[in-house]
Structure prediction request, 335 residues.
Amino acid sequence: MSTLTELREITFAQAVNEALHEEMERDEKIILLGEDVAAAGGVWKLTEGLLDRFGADRVLDSPISEAGIAGVGVGAAMTGMRPIVEIMFGDFLTLVMDQLVNQAAKMYYMSGGRYKVPLVIRTTLGAGRRLAAQHSQSLQAWFAHIPGLKVVLPSTPYDAKGLLKTAIRDDNPVIFFEDKLMYQKKGRVPPASDPYTIPFGRADVKREGSDVTVVATSSMVYVALEAAETLAEEQISVEVIDPRTLTPLDQEGMVSSVTKTSRCLVIDEGYERFGVTAEIAAVISHRAFYALEAPVERIGAMNVPIPFSPILEDQTIPNVDRVVRAVRRLVKGNG
Prediction:
């Protein structure tokens, strides 16, 4: 285990790139395919250097056909490879629903365990980049709804690297969501000589507190942490817990935190209606019912298409002010 002095600071993007390099070096069965992932190094520049290091047989630019990319990925996984497929924008997952939901998720079950689908789909989520309604959605709840799929939402460079390595080694299909706004976020990770992984289904406490638990996913962790700083000035102690994976979901970790604080707010950038916040709130309301001193609150994206207008877009997604007001209501009974 690395000591604190050995940790180094890198960006979220560098963490993903390092994980890809290290895993492809470790296992020659791993291949990478997607639109512009080879010569261009990816539209987000997360796959730079992979073509030069591993060659065109393992790092493949694909045609502009998300359905085709995913189909190739499923077939390659079933026949012994370990493909990583990049879908440039999470919104384009609408084009691969059959391959993921009807094929990848069900193949192990329908074949009586004879076929595994060790497939990783790397894609993005999140608004805030002024990319309008077809490039700004956070659709993670769709895939968490489907048995057979694992859903990962890292929030830090440390989590991104460790969870991606775990995803690549998993024998099940994994959807790995990266928030577009976090690629340049910096954080501390162990040296390359420490090949750490992070187990799925283990939440992480990003900030300890005693008055209220805020469960936050992906970039909403930073919104929660900023709100916690503001609330600390009012003598309100906020615990921020990051599930890191939606499936599997660390129910015990969340319930333990809420049992301690007795109040809970859940925030996620996906649409609030029928979304991640609803599922987590239901789990906590059921399992921590007798510890709660107030109903579980939740904040998600508005139930409208993401606007192109910057002023309107910013109003549709959770922000620090909304979190601060919600926590005040929970603790003081007012916002």
